[in-house]
Amino acid sequence: MARTKLSSNRPKASRPHMKGYGVPESMEGALPWSWAQERLVSSHNYWLTTVRPDGSPHTMVVWGIWLDGAYYFSTSATSRKGRNLQQNSNCIVCNENAEEAVIVEGVARKLNDGEIPPQAFTHYKAKYKWELDPKLGPVHVVSPRTVFAMPEKQFPKAVTRWKFE
Q: Is the whole model's pTM more than 0.85, yes or no?
C-alpha cells in the first residue's frame, strides 16, 4: 500500500522572513515540531484554501485528521474545493485556533481506496462520530512543504517555520 508517511521525516526548523515584525534571527525561543503537531491533531475544524482556475483563492471549513505527518480529508469531487484540487493541487490547511495558528502549505493528492490508512477511518470516526467514506467523496492527503507557527501570546519570539524535504 503506497501512502504518504512523514512521521519519521523530521522537518527542518527555521525562522520565517518577516522583516519589521521583530522575529529573532536566532532559534532561541523557537517552537518544537511537536507543538505544531499537537494543534494539528487536536483541531476539530480546519480551514482549507484552494486555488480557483482564475488564480483566486477559495477558503472553506472542513473536517479532517492529522495522521503520520499529513492531513487527510474528504470532499465531494464536484464541490468548488474538489474541482479546484483537480486543477491545482497546491493548498493551505490551517487549524481552527488563530491564537495558536499553524499554517500548512502543501500539496493535495486524491487517494485510491487502498491508499487510505486504516487508522484514518478509526480516527475520523472517533473524532466526528461520522464515517470517512470514499463513496461519499474522494479522500485527499495533504503533504506539507512548509509549516508556520504563529502563537499570538508568544509573538514574535516563538514564530517558527518548518521546511519538509
A: yes
